[in-house]
Amino acid sequence: MPNKILIVDDEPFNLDLLEQELTDRGYVIERAANGGEALGKVHSFLPDLILLDYQMPDMNGLEVLKELRSRGNDVPVVMITAYGTIERAVQAMKEGAYDFIPKPFDPDHLTLVVQKALERQRLKRDVEILSEEVGERYRLVVGKSAKILQAAELAKKAAASKATVLLLGESGTGKELFARAIHNWSDRNKSSFVAINCVGLSRELLESDLFGHERGAFTGAHELKKGKMELADGGTVFLDEVGDITPELQTKLLRFLQEREFERVGGNKPISVDVRIVAATNRDLDGAVKEGRFREDLYHRLNVIPITLPPLRERKEDIPELADFFLERFSKETKKRFTAIAAETEERLLSYDWPGNVRELANVIERAVVLGQGPEITPDDLPPRVINAEPEATSETTAYHEAMDAHRRGLIVKALTEAQGNRATAAKALGLHRTHLQKLLKSLGIE
Hints:
Elements lengths: L3 E5 L3 H13 L3 E5 L2 H11 L3 E5 L7 H10 L6 E5 L4 H9 L4 E4 L4 H31 L8 H14 L5 E4 L6 H11 L7 E5 L5 H9 E2 L11 E2 L1 H4 L4 E5 L6 H13 L1 E2 L8 E2 L3 E6 L3 H6 L5 H7 L2 E4 L10 H16 L5 E2 L1 H9 L5 H15 L4 E2 L6 H4 L7 H24 L4 H8 L3 H10 L4
Parallel strand pairs: 1-2, 1-3, 3-4, 4-5, 6-13, 6-14, 7-10, 10-13, 15-16
Antiparallel strand pairs: 8-9, 11-12
Helix pairs in contact: 2-3, 6-7, 10-12, 13-15, 17-18, 18-19
């Protein structure tokens, strides 16, 4: 799709020249003869670039530019200036203009400035989209259960300090997501977040990964390498599965936590860094300390603020929201049109115990999106272990579910009443995706 350019000048001759030159190069052009007309056409035409004459009656180019920026419009603006107004054009650039073109303009120079301005805007949008995608992918999906809200609140308080955090919980409960959230909530969020998996590497390789090595430190060390601790200076280091590190490395990590300095492998020069440590494990460190497999002093250094993440089977009320979140993510990634998870499918998800926790739920939804036809995820899209899960049938659980349904029904009816029947507004007030609200309306029999 060709780029759209709005050209603004009070002289028809200049408008004709610019329009002809830019139309010949494949751009879609709209014209405006003054500042007021230009502001109106920005709203209707939605240009990718504005070529704006500085010297116009009633409202000059700088005033138009300031008005655009006050409205929150960041469309790139290139000023068109006569010889005597170049200093004013420079002032306009300080106010947010991208560049300026002097009159009479050179066609090649005009084309070059336009191309660069459009390319800069495209790159800016790409970065914004990428940042949104990364942020969405690593967003902490808190849910509404008391246990996860309590863990999130504790993590937010910990983020405001410099204290070491120890995340505890089964595999797949979202420890790395919590670590990233702590980093993002802290004043270190402009610096690096570096994750290190302490499982699967030999002591030598893990030590080199953490602290780096000097050239010639060991066979194959052909050049100096900075470790993750050094690279993350000013930021956060996440030590995943810290309970698996060897006794020798436990000693070096303890020294680092005490002194905030280390030496590269093969080196003897102390290196000081400022990093925040967030560690995680699914092991029983208390038991490991008692059995002599983990240093007690290191344990206390790591365990300043412990946060336990609950398994998914203990927060099943979060499953619908989590499933909708993963459905939206994987639908975007695969470019498939999935709009909802069928009510019967949701029942199967709620009946399963999820030994792999949130990670397993994400994998199940991804599989369903890849293999399913849509537009809904049906039970046939689920793996056999989830389809065949038997729901509990005790009278206590039946009473519990009936009470929960009645409570949810009351909340939804109240939100719909206050929103005068607008489902999108009600969903936002309830903190739900609209598709999830639609399913609840259907399953609870709310007209």
